[in-house]
Amino acid sequence: xxxxxDAVTLRDLFNGLVLPGGGIRFRGDYFRTLIGPGVxxxxxxxxxxxxxxxxxxxxxxTGPHHQDRARQECDEVLFWPARSxxxxxxLEALLIRRLYPKYNSRYSGxxxx
Length: 113
Fold this sequence. Notes:
Blueprint: H1 3-17, H2 28-34, E1 38-44, E2 47-54, H3 58-62, H4 68-73, E3 76-81, H5 85-99
Antiparallel strand pairs: 1-2, 1-3
């Protein structure tokens, strides 16, 4: 098998393993902001379903989660990197008080009534 056949075979194998349009590139500094403390919001039609915080960025959002329902329903996810975990707690509380997300049990979706 020559180099061209190897390349075609590799491309075919690769394309069979990844999602269409798959592959996301991040700059290193940007990636590091996604794995530090922050606040995330699941939205559906621009309305907040759930707001939460994470000490480890997107790891919390993508892992086993007590708000799987919001994660399954959402059509958009916002993430705000925070300066510290304390800043993330303050931001989460502020957003929940102002936006009344549907699945944050303290407010139980007041805007959805």
